[in-house]
Amino acid sequence: MKLLFQSLALMSVLVFCTSAMSIETFNDEAGMKKFADQFMGIIGKGDLNKAYDFIKPYVNMNSVEVDSAAEESKQHRQKFAMQYGPSKGYQFISEKKVGNFLYRLLYIEKAEKQALPWVFYFYKNGKVWRLDEFDWTDQASVLFQSN
């Protein structure tokens, strides 16, 4: 029994290390911007599933967690479909760098009836940048808050 638990613990460590090592990184701001533009291009076509599949190699989440986030987004969007309307593209809004290790990209998804802000945060740990977090909201007012 003890051997079984040790084997399971070792497999868990190996799976964690393997997934942590396989996260795609970026060398510079141009790479991060290109990535976010590609993601938003998919979002702008209204394909949440494809967008969340696209982002999987870049996030420190397993596939199940990303799929769960995609499903949560889809449910929220379906609930308010009449309020938002279908996606009609996207627009880059701004970028902001804090020190030499934090970078934010802000976009809007141009839905038919409402702008939906999307934000991407990147963190530089050493020589490469990683996608730290991303999110969207239906509160366009966040675009006007001081940053």
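[next item in queue]
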Amino acid sequence: MPENASVGIIFTKRSNTDAIATKNYLLNKFTQKEVAKFYRLLEIFESVVTVFHELYPLSSKGKNIRRAVLSKQLSVFYKIGENQITVLTILDNRLDYSKWP
């Protein structure tokens, strides 16, 4: 897929679960303002990665898996497919992601 060719984004079941867990954590520990910031970071990621697929570096987590660090607290792992970007997981950077399968 050529760089700059706009594609769609697919969120896996796991990444959706991660997003919901992050939202619930933020609502429990912080305020709606932090939830809005979290969703804004995801929106920015989506708009950038759909155009610049390889902007973020390859991860050590597997072949062709990339890690986008969106903030000090948040990373998104994704794969580039033929006509889509697949978001595999959304992780809190404060956790030990070396245990991620």
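[queue empty]
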